[in-house]
Input
Amino acid sequence: MKVQYEATKIANKLILKIQGDLIGDDAGPKLVEMVSDTINEDIKICIIDLSQVRYISSSGIGVLITMLTKMRNAGGDVFLTSPSEHVKKLLIITKLNNIFTVYDSLDEALSGIA
Output
């Protein structure tokens, strides 16, 4: 399933809702470019809603890490929300759960991030 995403900006935060399989195809560079554009607009928080993501490949993980690196280099951060059980296991296996802050829901992330 091809990745689709929807970007919304709320109170100086970029919220990315991703649907499908995050496999680092042509959507990967577009997502990274969107984060770069957001940094240029002086938005330093990116929340990625993974509730509709079924699968993440190693390339997809690379996309997430690139986005995180760009944000942190600009003094910002990337937060993940609502991962499925499968994605949650992947985050634990790859130890990405120690690198990213993961919230159970988008609402929890919005209220937990200053």
Summary: The first strand starts at residue 4 and ends at 10. The two ends are 34 Å apart (CA to CA). The first helix runs from residue 27 to 40. The beta strands are 4-10, 13-22, 45-56, 77-81, 101-103.
